[in-house]
Amino acid sequence: MPRPSDTKQRIQEVARELFAQRGVQRTSLQDIADRLGITKPALYYHFSSREELVRSIVQPILDEEERFLLGQEALGEVAPRALLEGYFDFHYRHRREMVLMLSELTTFADLGLIDRVFEWRGRLGRLLHGPDPTLEQATRAVIAFGGIQDCTIQFADVPRDELRRAAVDGACAALGMSE
Fold it and tell me: Nearest Cα to 7, choosing from 34, 31, 36, 27?
């Protein structure tokens, strides 16, 4: 018999697949249990609701992004290109989950996750431009970081290193930074 943590991971993996295919709202816990060949009560043993299951998939990613930002904020002085490269690396690693989040914005807004993303974007902009960025600086930062995130999703067939260079160069250009 699989260990509970193995079962929990299997549930999350199947949920990711079904959420990507059908969407979160159109995937029931029964659908997930059926795909796994377990009973719905067995699934409820691990997750009491679809929202808890969604959060369990997304929370480790949110925690990782928070650690990334705290690490950058702790540096005192940020190297802009290194910040952009780290941001690319994070989103590239989690691009599958990012597609899920983008396709289910309402669900993620209900879980309070969209506000968190906006808060992070503000913090990233302040890392680059200080505590009171101008509107031009703030909008350029949103374009740069949003563009990097979008590139990791849109250009999935491009080799990682090639895409990283192009995306970070584009973000630097959006920020008005020399290479």
Answer: 36
